[in-house]
Amino acid sequence: MNTTVQLNRNGMRILLAAAALAITLPANAAAPSPPQEQSAPATQGILYRRAVEAAIWGMPIVSVDAMREAFFRDAHAHYNDIVYWSRPADWMNQTTTPNSSTLYVYFNFNLKDGPVVFDLPPSNGAATFGSLLDAWQEPLTDVGTSGQDAGKGARYLLLPPGFSGEAPAGYIPVHSSTLNGYALIRVIPKTLTGPDVASALASIREQRVYPLVQAANPPKQRHIDMAGKLFDGIVRYDETFYTRLARMVNEEPVASRDLVAMNQLRSVGIEKGSAFAPSTATQSILRAAVGEAHEEFIDTMRDNRKLWWPGAHWGVGGQGVATKTGFTFQTADYLDVDERGAIYYLAYAPPVKLGKASFYLTEWHDASGQKLRGERTYRLRVPPNVPARQFWAVTVYDVNSAGFIEHSPRVNLDSYDTDAQRNADGSIDLYFGSQPPSGKASNWIYIAPGKEWFAVFRFYGPEPAIFDHSWALADPVRQ
């Protein structure tokens, strides 16, 4: 990073010197052409700076494109097909901070050819919690038990940008400002036993997605089970980041709030209606730039959280503009692209109303304040009476990808785990390490040597004790 920063400084010095020279020349005099060895660093400096900002600005839509590619490539799905997981996710669900306790439903839609219907059945036998989102990952509406249908089921009508007609009766209209969008829905069985899971799966298979023009006779719905199969929607922080960004910029309408960003993208070689074909030298600069943006995302989500309990490092991010604006990140005065970029490194598919159906805390440090590392071992004591009506879970992620650690034999421990050993007072000791402690395999979560990791503690159906801080969780203790 130091070399790159020096490059930026050199480039800025050259630009300032050129500007000063132009000011001092007579009006009829031509400014001399800068030597080639000076103009190249100046140009590279501009490219680098603009590329860093482009990565920060474009993080939400790049993540959407990575997920959409996994939808097409790994699930062999098409728009309006429904992908689901018939059992809680393992490491092969390579997406951004998924849980490993519920059943997931995911689909992509495209409104280029007109409105699309999402037909959601009532939440019978299994709670349903999810959102419909646009290509910028702005939640358009929440669905299911805590959504507009309040668990009674409904037909949601997704409307394309600029739609000005009247939605037909019998639908909940959902206006989108982008052509692409997606849904992520969690289906939560009462237990993970056979009958409850079977009921949840039956509910999933009743969900349907189809064009409005086919509402009178909807096509047969494709449901694609990805349990036990690789689904890789993780963003790569290399030059391919900008290929994704260019693709999404070309597919989506430009909002007035983004006109300055669209102009800056031209310095990177991204322009609407034009092919993106960076040279080998440019690709090298782009790799360095997105690497810096990635580091900024990590630093922001690790160090700029609201700590939840005194003396502990558990905290919650996105407590600024994100929650105040319903994850649009747009205030009357500015668009907070910095917070938005960092959040979508760590999260995917935020709800309109955060904290009503679920609440999450993240942990990046041990009790001594050191970063969590995979070559060490830790113990976390979960006190009794966790304030979660439905379930609680502790899940581990790779800091670099914000996804499950690849090839992990166990990514999660939750209140569904009846095999977990409990202490006499009802508390549970969890162990993190590359190997389970002797006699404690049922209470163990894998971490990988050589990797930094973080944990998420999820409360589904959060109760007042989490918000009034009367229930507290200590940091992991290094063993």
What CATH architecture of the largest domain do you see? Sandwich
Q: Give the class-level CATH name of the largest domain.
A: Mainly Beta
Determine the CATH topology of the largest domain.
Answer: Immunoglobulin-like
Number of strands: 22
Domain DUF1254: 80-205
InterPro entries: DUF1214, DUF1214_C_sf, DUF1254, DUF1254_sf
Domain DUF1214: 358-463
Pfam families: DUF1214 (PF06742), DUF1254 (PF06863)
Could you walk me through the main structural features you see in this protein, from its secondary elements to its overall organization?
With 479 residues, the protein is of the alpha+beta class. It has 3 domains: 2-69 and 236-296, VPA0735-like fold (Orthogonal Bundle), CATH 1.10.3360.10; 75-232, Domain of unknown function DUF1254 (Immunoglobulin-like), CATH 2.60.40; 355-478, Jelly Rolls. It contains 9 helices and 22 strands. It has helices at 2-24, 36-73, 194-204, 240-251, 259-268, 280-303, 321-324, 337-346, 464-467; strands spanning 82-84, 93-94, 103-110, 116-120, 126-134, 139-144, 154-159, 172-175, 180-189, 208-211, 223-225, 231-232, 306-307, 315-316, 358-363, 378-382, 388-398, 412-414, 428-433, 444-446, 453-462, 477-478. The strands form 6 sheets. Strands 6-5-9-3-1-11 form a 6-stranded mixed beta sheet. A 4-stranded mixed beta sheet has the order 8-7-4-10, with no helix packed on it. A 4-stranded antiparallel beta sheet has the order 15-21-17-18. A hairpin with a 7-residue loop joins strand 13 and strand 14 (315-316). Helix 2 (36-73) packs across helix 4 (240-251), helix 2 crosses helix 5 and helix 2 (36-73) crosses helix 6. The longest helix has 38 residues, at 36-73. The radius of gyration is 24 Å and the shape is globular. The two termini are 34 Å apart. The model is unreliable at 1-39 (pLDDT under 50).
